Amino acid sequence: MLIRVFWTTLFLSLVGSIIPSQALCVKLELHWKQIATQCFQQYVKLGNEFNADLADLYSPKAMIKNTRIYPDGTEKISRLPAEEYKTLIRNSVMLAKERKDLNEFTGTQYSLEKNRVSIKTKRYSVLKKYTSPLILLIGIEANERCIIFEELSVSKP
Known about the structure:
Blueprint: H1 2-15, H2 20-48, E1 58-69, E2 75-81, H3 82-99, E3 103-113, E4 116-125, E5 130-140, E6 146-155
Parallel strand pairs: 1-6
Antiparallel strand pairs: 1-2, 3-4, 4-5, 5-6
Helix pairs in contact: 1-2
């Protein structure tokens, strides 16, 4: 991979200048995990600060899917349109703050999937005292801003 990046960079330098989109691709190829880690840290920070700006991390076309598991073992799958989910986040941060509804994350893993990064982690609800999986699929824009395109989560009542 590094050899390919080296030759691509050398070739583009010899041609005259690196086209911004190609420069970005080279940068992302080398630093995608670092950028994704920073994005996830921002996600965690905004969530645990009860900051409504968390909603701005989601694409207007994001796919949100939650599987709710009830004590009797039954499951209910919910899908929310992105704009509805973003409104839900904005409207619920104050209640979450009052309840001290914090999350802790462990075992976080990053993998590159085509032009997006999959973040798989375990989320521990401090309030409800349970651990569940969370998967985020993010994209990275030219300015290194991250956008969440998909969230798959599991919750309990």
